[in-house]
Amino acid sequence: MSFFHELAHQYIDGEWLTGSGSWDIIDFNPYNGEKLAAVTVATALEVDRAYRAAERAQREWASVNPYERRAVLERALRITGERAEEIAEAIIDELGGTRPRARYEVDSATEFLREAIRQALRPTGRLLPAVGDGRENRLYRLPVGVVGVISAFNFPFLVTMKSVAPALALGNAVVVKPHQNAPVVGGGLIAKIFEDAGLPAGLLNVVITDSAEIGDAFIEHPVPKVISFTGSDRIGRHIAATAAGAFKRTILELSGNSALVVLEDADIDYAVRCAVFSRFLHQGQVSMAANRILVDRSVAEEFTEKFTAEVAALKAGDPRDPETRIGPVINAFQADALDALVDRAVADGATALVRGRTVGNVVGPTVLTGLAEDSPLLQQEILGPVALLMTFDGEAEAVRIVNEGPYGLSGAVHTRDAERGVKFAQRIVSGMFHVNDSTVQDDPLVAFGGEKTSGVGRLNGEAVVEAFTTQRWMSIQHGRSVFPY
């Protein structure tokens, strides 16, 4: 595993370094327990060094012709394409992703990188009317400076690239803190791509560490102006409060409890396929996953029979087996927590229509029904292959159920009448909602983010320009102003 040993390092100011902390993060393969690498953690001093390097490098990068910045991203895109299979292999080893899921992530990240190339030329200034005679108002859009990125473990290559690529394209520097379960896929791999693409030293830095070592140093440091975080709402709440105290902007992509709704006129076979994908992609470790599957009572019997048959047929096991659809969850703690969650639900009266076995970190797919309406399980995010099946009577009840709870990230509704689906979606409090499709959607051009405790701010398309640039007003008086005194 020399590949992992090479990239499992701190990357600061263009150098691959060993951290100076007193302990190591061990990077394990979640399927077979193989040790991929050991990374000595970065300390607060190294976080400071990374941010200071980014600050120095960004001053010159901001003045670089956008066409030159675009050229670096074009080379990064070419390198990513050439290394697509290598990146997919790393996703399989480090995250336990199946090969189809690994290629899905690489292909998605490639599209976001391609969009970042266009974003390098996107920010434009504006001329605005002025109240006073002889005055000209100019509104410039400028890079914020340095962006701190804290990425998640579930889709780390994609999630990190979604912030890193546009931030660099728009003239910023970046410091990445990857999740400790994905230090290579979410950090080292991306640093290597941009290093080989000729990105000047200091513009992209990776610090592999943990809050147990650095506390809030990554967030509180005076250099970054924006913190982009993907992860749980619990941690996001802390980041938001800490960053606000330092007057920093935050982009928070947080937890979800999405629902996929099947109305009585839906194409049942198609809705089943969408529901299976929406719930079980990457073992259900996706914030947009359909935790709750709501089915109109009039078609519940048909849907349930077909859905449970599809779920029961999903092969769980070795992610390298081309037939596997459910690989391991990220670690033993998560596997144990999922087992306990299902056991508790059954003890409280739920029925397991499908109950998967747990072997090591591989948690077989489970379908639960008959949960009490006030069950806490219906109000929380489940990062694992557990589907909650519910029935409803009529659209009004479905809307009420979907909107209950603290989250509002994604969702979907299925109906043969697309405009009916649009009207349904308009009644849902959610950052994203999809008609006749999966709940798991991401598009480089469309604003991505959640409502309620599912997040603050948006990424993708024009939204990243808002996220990673600031506006500066400059007025010019070509004549003479008249003052009242």
What's the arrangement of secondary structure elements?
Layout: H1 2-7, E1 10-12, E2 15-17, E3 24-28, E4 35-40, H2 44-63, H3 66-82, H4 84-95, H5 99-119, E5 126-128, E6 135-143, E7 146-150, H6 156-169, E8 173-177, H7 184-196, E9 204-206, H8 211-214, H9 217-220, E10 226-230, H10 233-245, E11 249-253, E12 258-262, H11 268-280, E13 290-296, H12 300-312, H13 332-347, E14 351-354, E15 358-359, E16 362-363, E17 366-369, E18 386-392, H14 395-403, E19 407-408, E20 411-414, H15 418-425, E21 434-435, E22 451-452, E23 455-456, H16 462-468, E24 469-477
Parallel strand pairs: 7-8, 7-10, 8-9, 10-11, 12-13, 12-20, 13-18, 17-18, 20-21
Antiparallel strand pairs: 1-2, 3-4, 5-6, 6-24, 11-23, 14-17, 15-16, 19-22
Helix pairs in contact: 3-5, 4-5, 5-6, 6-7, 11-12
Describe the sheet with the most strands. 7 strands, mixed
What is Rg? 24 Å
Net shape = globular
What is the count of helical runs? 16
| Terminal residue distance | 76 Å
How many β-strand runs?
24
Low-pLDDT stretches are none
Helix and strand content put the structural class at alpha/beta
Which range does the strand content fall in? 15-25%
